[in-house]
Amino acid sequence: MTPFKLNPQSGQSIFDQVVYAATKAILAGSLKPGDPFPSVRNLAKDLKIHPNTAHKAVQHLIQERWLIASPGRGTTVAEPPAARQGDRHKLLGQEVEQLVVEARRVGVSLDEVHQAIDVQWQSLQNLKVVNNDS
Predict the structure, then answer these.
(1) Higher model confidence: residue 130 or residue 11?
(2) Helices (H) and strands (E) in the chain, counts
(3) Which residues pair with 69 in a beta bridge?
(4) Helical axes 88-106 vs 110-133, angle rounded to 10°
(5) Which residues on adjacent β-strands are paired with residue 36?
(6) Dihedral angle sign, alpha carbons of residues 73, 79, 80, 86
(7) Which residues of 118-134 are buried (b: 16+ CB within 10 A; e: fewer)?
(8) Residue 101 is part of which domain span?
(9) Alpha helices in 6-109 (DSSP H)
């Protein structure tokens, strides 16, 4: 069973939605380092997506070091990249740029962006606490 669901968003590819949902599940603690990640076949079946899309998403998550593929063991969750001393600025650079551009496009102030980030950060923290309690 896949420990996350897709939130269909118009204008966002299924591939991007799968990568985002898996990343969120890892950061929220639903998937912990060492946990098995669903096989491509199970991921495609559970999320009702094409197996090629599931394969592409899993390969991307492996390439981005969110997952580890081990012969004979399958695919498991890695330590989140942010937990490793790596390219933190690179990890967020494009997403932050997109957020800033979109916020400016719709006329949102910097304070409103900070508030929205605080709300989402707290929401993710609360989700992590709930997942760790279960």
Answers:
(1) 11
(2) 5, 2
(3) 75
(4) 130
(5) 76
(6) negative
(7) eeeeeeeeebeeeeeee
(8) 87-133
(9) 14-28, 40-47, 51-63, 88-106
The CATH number of residue 36's host domain is 1.10.10.10
Q: Give residue 85's pLDDT band: very low, low, confident or very high (50, 70, 90).
A: very low
Q: Enter the pTM of the model.
A: 0.66
Q: Are residues 100 and 46 in the same domain?
A: no
Inter-CA distances, 3 with 45, 59, 67, 105, Å: 13, 18, 15, 35
CA pair distance 90, 76, nearest whole angstrom: 23
Instruction: Give the per-residue pLDDT at 10.
Output: 65
Q: Are residues 18 and 75 in the same domain?
A: yes
Residue 82: band (very low, low, confident or very high) from pLDDT cuts 50, 70, 90: low
